[in-house]
Amino acid sequence: LQECKIQNSSREYCKIFAAEARAVPDFGAVPEIIPLYLIYRPANNIPYATMEEDLGGPCEQYCVTERDGSLVTRHTSEIVLKCCTFQHWVYQWTNGNILVTDMEGVGWKITNVRIATNLKGYQGLKESCFPSVLEQFAATHRCNHYCSILGLKTLEPAKPKGCKSPSVGRKSAQSSPQLQK
């Protein structure tokens, strides 16, 4: 159940991120976190299972949390850079309270996400990795071309507050899609 909450909540953040990214010329393709479904099988010895779409190939690790809690990207392809931009965006959107950490997938379809959070029980989520990853991310993230295209601010360790859109405070008049009707 927790895996479904984590992946599906991350998916919702990714949908908002995608809407903002698509509004920016030249951003290009956007990663998609696929849904993870919880199924109930009452006649089975293990009554609950998760199910997701077949990605059609072996998963590549784009970003992983090492055993020591450090966040590592595996290469610098466009998909990895955009996953890092998505991480930056979520971190900024939530004022440093949530970070989508591990991401792997096939092409632009992402699965097996994990999160780190400072918010105890935020929307029923519990961190699935070291919360110290939040501070480490803020200290080590290096903005890339896609962070610049979206106008994301350079990260500084945040004082946890409520969540807001990373578009607040941008120089352009563009507003977050969640505010538009």
TrEMBL record:
Keywords (A to Z) from UniProt: Disulfide bond, Immunoglobulin domain, Kinase, Serine/threonine-protein kinase, Transferase
Keyword Transferase: yes
UniProt GO BP: cardiac muscle cell development
Keyword Transcription regulation appears in the UniProt entry: no
GO cellular component: nucleus
Organism: Apaloderma vittatum
Alpha-type protein kinase domain span: 1-155
InterPro entries according to UniProt: a-kinase_dom, Kinase-like_dom_sf
Pfam assignment, any one: Alpha_kinase
GO MF entries: ATP binding; protein serine/threonine kinase activity
UniProt biased composition (Polar residues): 172-181
Protein name: Alpha-protein kinase 3
Gene3D superfamilies found in the cross-reference section: MHCK/EF2 kinase
Record region (Disordered): 158-181
